[in-house]
Amino acid sequence: MSFYINNTNPFRPGPMTGNPMNGICEKVLIETTKVFDACASQDTETGIVLPVTSFNPASPTLPLTFISAQNQIGSDVVVSDIVIDRIEQTPNYANVSMTITIPLTVTYRDANGVIGTGTSSITINKSAVLFVPQPSVTPINIKANAVFSSTIGNYTAENTFTVTGCLQIIIKVTALVDILVPSYGYPVIPPCQACQNCNACTGLNDLPLYPTASTNIRQ
């Protein structure tokens, strides 16, 4: 059993049925990241120069033949040199510019036909008009996620490729905030399987799954 398999308990996540107000029992203060604005772009980038280091295996036989270059989805992207230039006529909006550095894994074939990998990166200057809240005690953060993928490239200098690839970027304006939300209380966590050797859990079975803040919170 799980939240979604053979579970009919009403206190579980999933689609709402009936009146969604039924069962709301408290207001919960949650610390979370709020996204105030976001945008996405997709472009074909040409003439990108990729110096390659950290060869695996080491010391490949030159020249190299390009196979691909890409970053792993979710890999660290460095955002720097952020400038928020507010638009005078609409001060809640701003031209947000930044430098985005994306680490890449480059795959190649050396002159002996041995396939290997190396590391490189690309640096992109990006700007977009976004909603940016007015200054407050809680700082505003500019974040970016990026995916780059290329299968078109040539070996143009020692340990260097020049490539063409697809670049997708998502920019977000965020802040770490406290948000008050209505709640149905705690969910009921179903067992993964029937309890075995339950005597080993004597005492633990008496503990609530979550801390209780008031007598009307479901456990």
Offer a quick outline of the entry.
The protein has a domain at 31-180.
Q: Characteristics of this structure?
A:
219 residues; mainly beta; 8 strands; 0% helix
3D architecture notes:
The chain is mainly β. The chain has a domain at about 30-180. The chain has no helices and eight strands. It has strands spanning about 25-50, 55, 65-70, 80-85, 90-110, 115-130, 140-155, 160-185. Strand 4 (about 80-85) and strand 5 (about 90-110) form a beta hairpin. About 15% of the residues are buried. The model has no long low-confidence stretch (mean pLDDT about 85).
Order of helices and strands: EEEEEEEE
Q: Rough shape?
A: flat
Q: Specify the helix fraction band.
A: under 10%
What's the helix count?
Answer: 0
What is the C-alpha radius of gyration, as a whole number of Å?
A: 26 Å
Ends distance: 18 Å
Give the beta-strand count: 8
Broad structural category: mainly beta
Q: Beta-strand level of the residues, as a percent range? A: over 45%
For the largest beta-sheet, the strand count, sense and barrel status come to:
8 strands, antiparallel
Mean pLDDT: 87
Instruction: Report the uncertain regions.
Output: none
